[in-house]
Amino acid sequence: MKVSTRCPQDEKTIASLRELMLINIDSFNGFRQAGEELHDAQLARKFDELSRERWRQAAEIYRMLRPDSEDRLRPEHVSSRIGRTIMDWHRAFGTCDLALLQEAERGEEYIKAKYEAALSRELVKGTGEFLKTQYKRVEAAHQWLVEACGFRIRPRSNAAIWGRN
User: What is the CATH number of domain 11-66+82-157?
Assistant: First the structure.
């Protein structure tokens, strides 16, 4: 996607874009970590795809905020805040694909709300369309996760989900 090379000047817009960039990085880390925990190879591939999409979105925002920089955004620049505790908890107490799907869905609900809040504000010309495009990707991922969670729940009885036969 072609990103505007004009750096926003409004401090609120800059703060909002920085927040979205960090949330996309958190989502990248969350999808990557969850993908490593998934048992289903097809789900793991989808999580890998979603993690790369989030990284691209973070990089697009980074380029908008630093248009004159030769610097590139790299994973070692930041660390994940969202999801690390959850993934540690899952590792400590065991996990299943459904739990990871549900946690990812909650994370996408959060990032979706942040994009909606940013889009509801007056933003610098060019930024609104750029964010709408990213928001559509987030919305599509969220919808996929909602459907994937529903698919995983429907075929089983509640007893099967909780390990009781």
Answer: 1.20.1260.10
